[in-house]
Amino acid sequence: MGGLKLPPQTLHALPFQLVLLQEMLPYIHLVYFRVDISFWEGPGKSGFGARSTKASVQPVTEELVEDKTTENPVSGDAIRRRFLEFYASRSHKVLPSASLVPDDPTVLLTIAGMLQFKPIFLGKAPRQVPRATTAQKCIRTNDVENVGRTTRHHTFFEMLGNFSFGDYFKKEAIKWAWELSTKEFGLPADRLWVSVYEDDDEAFEIWHDEVGVPAEHIKRMGEEDNFWTSGATGPCGPCSELYYDFHPERGYKNTDLGDDSRFIEFYNLVFMQYNKMDDGSLEPLKQKNIDTGLGLERLARILQKVPNNYETDLIYPIIEKAAELANISYALADDRTKMNLKIVGDHLRAIVYLISDGVLPSNIGRGYVVRRLIRRAVRIGRLLGVSGGGEDGVFLPAIAEKVIEMSPHIDPDVKARGHGILDELQREELRFVQTLERGEKLLDQMLAEALLNAQKSETLPCLSGKEVFLLYDTFGFPVEITTEVAGERGVKIDMDGFEVEMENQRRQSQAAHNIVKLAVENGGDLAENVHDTEFLGYDTLSARAVVESLLLNGKSVIQVSEGSEVEVLLNKTPFYAESGGQIGDHGFLYVTQDQSKQTAVVEIKDVQKSLGSVFVHKGTIREGVLEVGREVEAAVDAKLRQRAKVHHTATHLLQSALKKVIGQETSQAGSLVAFDRLRFDFNFHRPLLDESGAIAMFGEKYGEQVRVVEVPGVSMELCGGTHVSNTSEIRAFKIISEQGIASGIRRIEAVAGEAFIEYINARDSQMKLLCSTLKVKAEEVTARVDNLFRGAKDGKK
């Protein structure tokens, strides 16, 4: 290669004086060890969006040991602890709550306690324990309009759950649910009602004959209410629910368990015993599972004897703080004011825990969920007259401080991230206030146009439903404010049209948020017959392997001929599959005859993971025919692998430098480790200055064996990617761009190793061409171009 050449030992300083690679210790150790870590909870990372490593690695049961002498036995924290201890004493492993950001592309946010166990329910991951219990943070925004209006709807809530993975089933689940409710928590048996699926005679008999629930307190209900499905296909089964009766004096006749004024469902037991097929038929599962969920806020309401979930000690202190800032007495407030205070209290819980788990406000995906909740809280708070007391009038951080104060037993990491959470809320609230002011101007324009059009057409002035929805959704204008302002100008609004727009949004939200898909793509045969792929690529770049399956256009075939695009599944492979931001390896599969003559060649251009840890090699048959069962020589392109290793290790060093320079609160928001460059997205609210600096392992999944990559004294990360064994292999590193890509998210692109040399040589060639064209030396190019620009401007005058 012509142009600039650097010896392997040469190191190039990072721009912006971030961190010099010369200062890095020369050796990176790849350390392998086994720890007691659960496969469903990826080990912690620093900053937003990370569970602490300690919480992930050590049994959570130890955290339950605390001073209970002064504890209120029916406080929210006590109920959570007592639930977990109840099931821990029955051989359940207490596991930590998963992040609100799920490791599952089918759902936007964690909406149920069972989500972290999905690989087990699918049969795609082995169970690590036969029984488990959790207190899971959850977010649901599909029915956000009901928050504050009903006694029980929330965006953020905790789901207490006990789970069995092919261990116990209906009898134990039902008996323990009853024992927990009546003995541990002391609920009167005559206040409890039970629902069962209409055809589930087994559950009915257990409740009636073995537990002793009167038949008149057991309701058989249809598929819509009491049969749980994960989607069109996949694991499913009947469920049974426990209800608390607030008004037993109303008797037994014509009882409707859906009557919110009388009943509240607080415990749901799902008996996952069938697999729903494409034709709708139900096949018994080989491994029957139990998935339960008890709503912490609902049980707290019952035990604390308050009229709604919001007045429990889990939420009410936040409401009180909002009322204090608005100079309002909640007890003396009217129903509408109380409703608005409940909304603010609910939304601040969701906002704080989402930001803590790394979800920052933006206009897409999860970030948009946070932004909408923040804007809703701000506009409702402004209606109430809430003020933070400062010159800017910002109040969300003051309320959020109360949420953070109450967080240790829910998520101990929230308090550690408190400063970053409050800073983000401050920025976002100020930004939204500016948006509101723009919305006011737009509303004024809309009203002027409506009046003018009405005058021309001699009709009554009216704002369309789409216009009202635009103000509501984009600018945060409550419909009541739009209605009030429009009424003052003599303009009506099309509420029917607005409701149509709202219903469209609700349907889209439900589709994106409220379904946990457990069905496996590409059919059941493949899922049943293909085993996990053994990865050999840390130790070798070539290996003999056997073709276990071939896919042509997504369908399983026996053989594939020359020229065809094919997906190849091997029993073992040296090819790295795309994961944690690092792209999949390239290379070839060779079929040889008599150890010498090649009979088929497959060029591999991508490798992806599917069904857990099945590696799918995507490529083209360049020569011959490939058949299932054939032995192949799998060979990775060594030069491209080296480029990926260099960029991946450089990414670790970049993250470490960022944390040292701009603070530990920054965290990764995405990454790409490619052959020609690396890309690193991180949470930061402003551009990096020349003196600011850089430092990620994101989207990884970890099994029992955890791989730790350490640059002694600089960086230590849990990472499944491939890395260099010595930092001298990086040779050189250069940041080629740094820019904002979304609100609060910055992106760095950089090159290292051979990619750096190619980049520098290309720039060098461009500079030589400029020098030749302008007939100046390299150091004179800038001055020459400035002169040309000034001359061009003067010529236009």
TrEMBL record:
Binds 1 zinc ion per subunit. Residues 74-762 form the Alanyl-transfer RNA synthetases family profile domain. PROSITE patterns: AA_TRNA_LIGASE_II_ALA. The keyword Zinc applies. Its cofactor is Zn(2+). GO terms for cellular component: cytosol; mitochondrion. InterPro entries: aa-tRNA-synth_II/BPL/LPL, Ala-tRNA-lgiase_IIc, Ala-tRNA-ligase_IIc_anticod-bd, Ala-tRNA-synth_IIc_core, Ala-tRNA-synth_IIc_N, Ala-tRNA_ligase, Ala_tRNA_ligase_euk/bac, Thr/Ala-tRNA-synth_IIc_edit. Keywords: Aminoacyl-tRNA synthetase, ATP-binding, Cytoplasm, Ligase, Metal-binding, Mitochondrion, Nucleotide-binding, Protein biosynthesis, RNA-binding, tRNA-binding, Zinc. One of its GO terms (molecular function) is zinc ion binding. It is found in: Mitochondrion; Cytoplasm. GO terms for biological process: mitochondrial alanyl-tRNA aminoacylation. Zn(2+) binds at H648, H652, C719, H723. Its EC number is 6.1.1.7. Belongs to the class-II aminoacyl-tRNA synthetase family. Alax-L subfamily. Catalyzes the attachment of alanine to tRNA(Ala) in a two-step reaction: alanine is first activated by ATP to form Ala-AMP and then transferred to the acceptor end of tRNA(Ala). Also edits incorrectly charged tRNA(Ala) via its editing domain. Monomer. Consists of three domains; the N-terminal catalytic domain, the editing domain and the C-terminal C-Ala domain. The editing domain removes incorrectly charged amino acids, while the C-Ala domain, along with tRNA(Ala), serves as a bridge to cooperatively bring together the editing and aminoacylation centers thus stimulating deacylation of misacylated tRNAs. This is Alanine--tRNA ligase. It comes from Salix koriyanagi.
